[in-house]
Every structure is written in C-alpha cells, then in structure tokens.
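Entry 14. Structure prediction run on the chain below.
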Amino acid sequence: MAIHPSARIASTARVAEGAEIGPGVEIGDFCVIEDDVAIGEDSRLESHVVVKRWTTLGRSNQISVGTALGTDPLDTGFSGERSYLRIGDENIIREHYTISRGSEPESETVIGDRNFIMTSGHIAHDCRVGSDCVICSCALIAGYVEIEDGAFISGPLGVHQFSRIGRLAMIGGMTRVNRDVPPYFLYSGYQITPRGVNVVGLRRAGLKDAIPPLKKAFRLLYRSSLPMPEALARIDSELEGEHIEHLVRFIRGSKRGVSRR
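Output returned:
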C-alpha cells in the first residue's frame, strides 16, 4: 500500500493494499478503495464513496457521497477482464453518481479536467468526456458517447449510445439525444431540435468574435432549407475561422447524422 503521510483517511474507510493515495488526499467515512486504484494529490472523497479496481483520479478532484467510480460496464457482452476508468484533474462529481470503466479488455472510459458532474446520473462504458463540461442531475449517458470540451448537458435526459456532442453545445432538459449534436449551438425539445447559437457559452469561453460567423452558419444549416451538402459547401466558401472549420468537420464526420428539424 502506498499512502502518502499527509493523506487523511477515516478509520471506517477501507483502502486496499494495492491502492496509491497521493499527498493531501482526504478519504471519508465508510469509503471503499480497491486494489489498482490511484488517487491524485489533494483529492477529497466524502463518505460512502466506492472506487473500483483499475480507476485513476488525477489531482484536486471532489467526489461526493454515495458515488461509485469504475463500476463494471452495463454491457451483456462484458467478459470481466481488465479495463479502465481514467479521470483527470479538478473535477467535481456530486452525490450518487456512477461511472463505468471500458467494456472490451484494456479499453477505457475517459473523463477530462474541471468538469462539473451533478447528482444521480450515469456515464457508461467507453465514453469520452472532454474538459470544462457541465452534466446536470439525472442525465444518463449511454456507452461510447463522446462529449467535447465545454458542453452543457441539462437534466433529466438521456443520450443514446455512440452519439457525439460538440464543443460548447448546450442541450436543454427533457431532450432525447439520439443523433449527433453539432458544436456551439443550443438544442431543446423531446425530438432534439436546434434553436440557435450558444451566445452565452461562447462569451463565457472568450469566443465573442466567433458568434457572428456561427450565426450565419446556423442560418445556412437550419433556416435556409438547403440540403446538408449544399449548406456545408456554402459555409466553406463564405465563412472562415477555426470554429467554423470545427463545425463543418464535426458534421461531415457524423455517422449517426445530425438533427435538422
């Protein structure tokens, strides 16, 4: 067992011999930390947190009561072999949340940095969550979902497996996410519907100059009645900038298709 002398571990917690606990870590009452777990410096686990085998947490993560990290995937084909959950730095994961490790042998679920993940939800096996995202209470993220940096996912809602959610997209509550969600836009409605540009999110991210061209791109995509290939060709020829390029690349790379309601 490698426990740094500065770590504080409650007497009622159980930490396996094969775990690595970094400097300044706090582990609360009745936590269970299994073998092959690494918890980075200054992370704080409140009471009744379970960190399952083959899970890694970076530094300064805050994990709230009743959360289970690195759970076996909810996949009928799971064989029980080694796979991973890797969590970055400075994430906040609130009460009663579950995040599964990868489904195939040696696969992984990856959570980036500085995400705020609220209560009573689930991130399934083999997901990729970027950094600076907000995932609200009671959001259920199915397997193999990719969420880019800065996305805001309201709750309650469900995200279908293999879906992609683009950078700084904002999805309203009670939305059925069953297609890819292009970056920078707002979406709501039971059948996910694009509503406009995420102006507030872009301003908060320091991308005010990107708003006018993205508004023009939104009109071409969703208000012009052009077929998607023509709309993308118009965007390519009439607009420029890294965010326009990212938007076009995201849509052209979609395998599930994007909503155009």
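The chain has one domain: 2-207.
Filed with the rest of this week's runs.
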